[in-house]
């Protein structure tokens, strides 16, 4: 998802697009992979002195609920990135830097056969490891 799409999605859902929210979304639009709330606060702090954790978490929750951000848990911490709008795919996620690489293969193609008459309502498939940059570090 691009920044403009994210802002439009917020507007379409009836939410205000404040400067603070635009800056938060800009952070994720420029990020390469998943980022933590702490990363976002560090980015926002120079512009918004004393920005509260509550404000950041409330907006992260809103963005997730609206479908602008997707989440994962890395090293025991919830992390966020802009939602992908490409074709159906999954991700390899670097446990060190949070960068992602798309994976076109979907294991659900095989699993559907094993589940027979079960009703599948969604799925999430992620592979974790170290990217080439972090392996060489």
UniProtKB/TrEMBL annotation:
<keyword id="KW-0804">Transcription</keyword>
<keyword id="KW-0805">Transcription regulation</keyword>
<dbReference type="InterPro" id="IPR036390">
    <property type="entry name" value="WH_DNA-bd_sf"/>
</dbReference>
<keyword id="KW-0238">DNA-binding</keyword>
<keyword id="KW-0678">Repressor</keyword>
<keyword id="KW-0963">Cytoplasm</keyword>
<keyword id="KW-0862">Zinc</keyword>
<dbReference type="InterPro" id="IPR002481">
    <property type="entry name" value="FUR"/>
</dbReference>
<dbReference type="InterPro" id="IPR043135">
    <property type="entry name" value="Fur_C"/>
</dbReference>
<dbReference type="InterPro" id="IPR036388">
    <property type="entry name" value="WH-like_DNA-bd_sf"/>
</dbReference>
<dbReference type="Pfam" id="PF01475">
    <property type="entry name" value="FUR"/>
</dbReference>
<protein>
    <submittedName>
        <fullName>Zinc uptake transcriptional repressor Zur</fullName>
    </submittedName>
</protein>
<comment type="similarity">
    <text>Belongs to the Fur family.</text>
</comment>
């Amino acid at each position: 998802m691009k920044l403009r799409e994210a802002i439009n999605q917020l507007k379409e859902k009836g939410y205000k697009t404040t400067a603070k929210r635009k800056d938060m979304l800009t952070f994720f639009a420029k990020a390469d992979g998943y980022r933590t709330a702490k990363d976002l606060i560090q980015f926002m702090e120079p512009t918004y002195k004393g920005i509260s954790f509550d404000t950041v978490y409330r907006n992260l929750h809103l963005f997730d609920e609206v479908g602008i951000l997707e989440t994962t848990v890395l090293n025991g911490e919830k992390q966020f990135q802009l939602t992908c709008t490409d074709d159906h795919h999954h991700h390899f996620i670097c446990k060190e830097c949070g960068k992602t690489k798309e994976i076109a293969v979907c294991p659900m193609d095989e699993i559907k056969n094993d589940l027979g008459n079960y009703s599948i309502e969604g799925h999430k498939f992620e592979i974790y490891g170290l990217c080439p940059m972090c392996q060489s570090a």
